[in-house]
């Protein structure tokens, strides 16, 4: 099995790249597990950068071909794995920057949401698009999105499955800044190196304290979301939504 995740390190900055470009870096189990293992190698990094391989995608989401046949129990296991990885990013002692270099849909948007900072290239498109597959965000999206962009914008995105270009995403605060595609690497590199020069324990404390703002109710919300999400794998709309995607046709929901 190919690893589908690479890591490079320069001066305390670990760059983790999800590398499955033929599927627009969609996260199948193999890739999620590789990401989990790769995050082990970032534990002593001062800054982590997360990005996707190729010109087109950060991560086009959880793998729909894999998900479409999941039972409720299997969906719960997949949700657990996705949550574990998003939690690792959110709780990492180092700041994590998402370099959003293209499509960031569904689980891809949720990975970006679990990072501390999001820098997008002009060609990026972001969305919690799960509704059109007959499900809802299941890797923390309902909770983290709402906290980041506010309730109204989150409802719009989640209910309509809107796909926002980078500028629209910046307007609602979903990404912090938008840069020309060719400049993304250098802008992120500069930001990462600035952060790497800050006092690491103070930075870790700042992150931990800022994370506390969302503690308590969020963990209950995340558990709630996991149960709801996996429960949808018993519905006809989930099967239809995902089968339609794989068969390249419009879904016919009940
Ligand atoms: N899961 C599995 N495979 C995916 C995928 C996903 N989330 N997103 C894209 N792919 C695959 C496609 O099936 C296709 O594979 P193929 O070449 O074997 O047919 C390949 O990636 C390229 O995608 P394609 O749809 O042909 O490219 P496009 O440029 O026309 O469209 C997107 C790109 C991202 C707009 C489109 O692929 C899309 O809408 N993907 C689903 C996004 C989504 O809903 N994600 C949330 C999942 S929770």
UniProtKB/TrEMBL annotation:
GO terms for molecular function: 3-hydroxypropionyl-CoA dehydratase activity. It is an enzyme of class 4 (lyase). The keyword Lyase applies. Keywords: Lyase. Gene3D superfamilies: 2-enoyl-CoA Hydratase, Chain A, domain 1, Lyase 2-enoyl-coa Hydratase, Chain A, domain 2. SUPFAM superfamilies: ClpP/crotonase. It comes from the Archaea. Its EC number is 4.2.1.116. InterPro entries: ClpP/crotonase-like_dom_sf, Enoyl-CoA_hyd/isom_CS, Enoyl-CoA_hydra/iso, Enoyl-CoA_hydra_C. GO terms for biological process: fatty acid beta-oxidation. The keyword Electron transport does not apply. Belongs to the enoyl-CoA hydratase/isomerase family. This is 3-hydroxypropionyl-coenzyme A dehydratase. It comes from Halalkalicoccus paucihalophilus.
């Amino acid at each position: 099995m190919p690893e589908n995740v690479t890591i490079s390190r320069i001066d305390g900055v670990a760059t983790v790249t999800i590398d499955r470009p033929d599927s627009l870096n969609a996260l199948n189990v193999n890739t999620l597990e590789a990401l989990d293992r790769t995050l082990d190698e970032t534990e002593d990094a001062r800054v982590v950068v997360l990005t996707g391989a190729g010109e087109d995608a950060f991560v086009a989401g959880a793998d729909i071909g894999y998900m479409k046949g999941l039972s409720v129990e299997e969906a719960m296991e997949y949700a657990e794995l996705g949550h574990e990885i998003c939690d690792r990013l959110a709780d990492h002692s180092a700041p994590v920057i998402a370099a959003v270099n293209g499509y960031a849909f569904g689980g891809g948007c949720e990975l970006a949401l679990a990072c501390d900072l999001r820098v997008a290239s002009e060609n990026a498109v972001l969305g919690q698009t799960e509704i059109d597959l007959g499900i809802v965000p299941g890797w923390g999206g309902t909770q983290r999105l709402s906290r980041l962009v506010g309730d109204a914008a989150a409802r719009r995105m989640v209910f309509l499955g809107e796909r926002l270009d980078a500028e629209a995403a910046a307007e609602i605060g979903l990404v912090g800044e938008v840069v020309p595609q060719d400049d993304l690497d250098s802008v992120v590199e500069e930001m990462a190196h600035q952060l790497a020069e800050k006092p690491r324990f103070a930075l870790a404390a700042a992150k931990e304290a800022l994370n506390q703002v969302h503690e308590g109710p969020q963990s209950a919300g995340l558990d709630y979301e996991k149960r709801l999400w996996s429960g949808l794998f018993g519905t006809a709309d989930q099967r239809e939504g995902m089968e339609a995607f794989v068969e390249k046709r419009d879904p016919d929901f009940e």
